[in-house]
Amino acid sequence: MKLEELQVYQLSMEIGEKVWNIVIKWDYFAKDTVGKQLVRAVDSVAANLSEGFGRFHYKENKNFCYYSRCSLYETRTWLTKAKNRQLITEDDFLFFDTEINSIGVKLNNYIKSIGKISNNNE
Q: Considering just the CA atoms, what is the radius of gyration of the chain in Å?
């Protein structure tokens, strides 16, 4: 299986682009404070999935998936701050919150699946 075939990776890449397309329109101060943090957090979700996928041992892959999950929840915090500071609309926030919940479920399921075959062979 290729990394690009994982649905959780595809969704993580998509949400990163959607966030970018919103943040890029903000004024300098908003981009420099909340925007940079938000983009780094959301981009880190997919980046950690790919780094873990490329690791030799499944335990390392799991660790990077945990980092990915942490970044996903950090993204939610920055989106909440953006909503509270009126940088995104309530509708955008609700959309992203739904996406984060969906990605979180898929990420947890992916984490549970890692190493299942390897464990049976040890």
A: 16
Residue whose C-alpha is closest to residue 42's, from 61, 70, 83, 81: 70
Find tokens 């920055």 and name the residue. Answer: 78
Whose tokens are 């009126």? That residue is: 86
Question: Which is the CATH superfamily of the domain at 7-114?
Answer: 23S rRNA-intervening sequence (1.20.1440.60)
Question: Rounded to two decimals, what is the model's pTM?
Answer: 0.91
Contacts 24+ apart (CB under 8 A), 36-44: 37/78, 38/75, 38/78, 38/79, 38/82, 41/71, 41/74, 41/75, 41/77, 41/78, 42/15, 42/16, 42/71, 42/75, 42/78, 43/16, 44/68, 44/71, 44/74
* Encoded tokens for 74: 């950090």
pLDDT digit string, tens, across residues 13-50 = 999 999 999 999 999 999 999 999 999 999 999 999 99
Domain ranges of the chain: 7-114
